[in-house]
Amino acid sequence: MQNSRRSFLKMSMAGAGALALSSVNANATANEKDVKFDEEYDVVIVGTGFAGLAAAIKASERGKKVLILEKMGRAGGNSVINGGNMAAPMNKFQVAQGIKDSKEIFIADAVKDGLGLNHTELLGTMFDRSNDAVNLLISCGADFLERLIFESGHSVARSLQTSNGSGSGYVQPMLNKLKDDPNVTIKTRAKFDELVLDDSGRVVGVIGREDYKFDAKLFSDDLENKSGEKKAYKAKSGVLLAAGGFGRDLWYRQIQDPRIVPTIDSTNHPGSSAGAMLQATKIGAVTLQTSWIQFLPYCSPDEKGFGAAVNFTNHCCNTYGITVNPKTGERFMNEHAGRKIKADACFAVIGKEENYPVNICDSQAVAAQNPIYTSRPLEIGVIWKFDTIDALAAHFKIPADKLKATIAKYNEGVKAGKDEFGKPVSKLNGIDVSKAPFYASRTMPKVHHTCGGLEINTKAQVISLDTHEPIPGLYAAGEITGGVHGASRLGTYAILDCMVFGMIAGENI
Q1: Region at 307 (left for phi over 0; alpha for psi -120 to 50; beta for the rest)
Q2: 401-460 pLDDT, tens per residue?
Q3: Residue 57 half-sphere exposure, CB side, CA atoms within 13 Å?
Q4: Phi, psi (deg, nearest 5) at residue 42
C-alpha cells in the first residue's frame, strides 16, 4: 500500500517537478527554515571508518571544510578491528609476480559468491579505482606486505595485507594525516540523528548530539538513549553517510532474518546499528538486499566478537589446511569456498549440540603467512599447538584413526593437484598437513557483514524511491550501502568497497 500511495503521489504531482516533496518525507525530517545551525561546513560525514576517512581526505584536497561525526568514544568503527586485508586487483605486487587478473575475473568472483545479485557497475568502479585506493593509503603511510593473500572464493591471489594484520594499519595512518589538516574537524561521542532538507528537497545539513554516551546495555541504543546536547550542522555541499552496517542492531537484524536472535554473537563493534540508514529512508532513500546478512565462518567460540583467531583460521587453515567434524574426524566442505557456503556447512555440523568444527594446519602453512596471525591467538589461548596429530586428536576428542586417514587423503589430493571437495589445491605450492608442529582452532560463525543497505550509483549518490534519481546533497559509502556484494560478500572486497566509494564521494560532493 505504501508503494502504491507513493506512486500515486508521484503521478499526481508530476507537474510540480523536483521541488516538491511527498507528504511522507516532509513530515519525517527537519526543514532548513525551522533549524538554527550551530556550525557551518561544506561537507558533513557520518562515520570514521575507511569510507568516511577516505572521503574526508579527498574533500579536503579540494579545499572543502569538513566535519566528521563519530558516535562512539574512539574513531574507526568496524574498520579499525577487522583483519586488514584488501582486494586490490592489478596492484603492483600482483603485476610483479606475474599473477593474471582482469576486470572480468574480479567481477565474476564476486558475482559467484553473491549469487548473481551484485550490481556489477559498482564492482566495475571498484576495479577501475583500485590502485587509486592503494595509492591513497600509501600516501598516508600504510605499510603493505609484498606477500599477497589467496583469499577464499577468489580465483587468483589479489589481496593486500597490512603488516600489523589489522584494519588499524589503514585507519591510523589516515587519522594521522587528518589530525593536522586545518580543513577537517573530527568529533567523537557525536551522534547523527536527523537530516535537514531545504524546500527543494536537497540535503543541507544534519542534526546530532554532542557528548553522546553510547550504552551497550540498552536493547536499542538508537531509540532509548537520549544523552547528549542537540546540535545542528550546516553542510553547504552535502552529507555523506558512512556509518557502517547493523550487525549489532539486535532488533533490525532480526526483522530482516528472524533466525538471527539477539543471543547470536557478532564480529562488529557494539555501536553498529541501522540508525543512520533508517534516517535516510525517512527522506525517501531506497534500501535493497538488507536481509542478506553474512556470517564469518572463521570466528572462534572461545572468544567474544571478532577476536584474534580469525586471520589464523582463514589464511593458515582454510587456505592451506583442513576443517573437520570433531565427531567423525572427516572433512565436510571446500575450505576455500565463499563465506556463505562455509558458514552454512559449519552450522550443519554444529547443530544444537554445539559440536564446533576444528580447523587444522601445519608449520608450513604458518610459515607461509604473516607471523602475527599465529603468535597473537596462541598467546591468548584461542588456537593450540601440538607436536603430533595424536595429541591434537586427544585434545579435541576427535577419533585419531579417522583424522589421520582424512589428513592422508587430503595430502594425496594436494600432491595430485585434485581435491575431493573442489579446493584449488594445485595453487597451494605443495603445502599440505604433514610437517609438525600442528596448529588448530575451533570455528563458530558470527554475524559479520550486512550486505544490503542504501542504493547508490557509481558517483556514491543515494537514490530516491520517489524519483529513481539521486537525492540532492546526499551520498553514502561502505557497509551502509547495498548492491556491491549481493547475497554474500567475498572476503577482502569490503575495504576496497569502502575506500573507493569513500574517495568518490569526497571527490564529487
Answers
A1: left
A2: 999 999 999 999 999 999 999 999 999 999 999 999 999 999 999 999 999 999 999 999
A3: 27
A4: -80, -45
Q: Is the dihedral of CA 472, 277, 165, 426 positive or negative?
A: negative
Q: Which residue has the cell 555501536?
A: 271
In terms of Cα–Cα distance, which of 210, 192, 175, 187 is closest to 53? 175
Question: Nearest to residue 41, comparing CAs of 284, 239, 200, 283?
Answer: 239
Query: Which are the catalytic amino acids?
Result: 339
Residue from 117, 90, 94 nearest 104 by CA: 90
**454-478 pLDDT per residue, tens:** 999 999 999 999 999 999 999 999 9
How many other C-beta atoms can be found within 10 angstroms of the C-beta atom of residue 129?
A: 19
Query: CA-to-CA distance for 329 and 357, rounded, in angstroms?
Result: 10
Question: Do 288 and 451 form a contact (C-beta atoms < 8 A)?
Answer: no
Q: How far apart are CA 348 and CA 328, in angstroms?
A: 14
For β-strands 203-210 and 190-197, DSSP reports them as antiparallel
- CA of 500: how far to CAs of 41, 62, 64, 261, 306, in Å? 23, 17, 19, 33, 24
Three cell numbers written together for 327:
565427531
Distance of CA 3 to the CA centre of its chain: 30
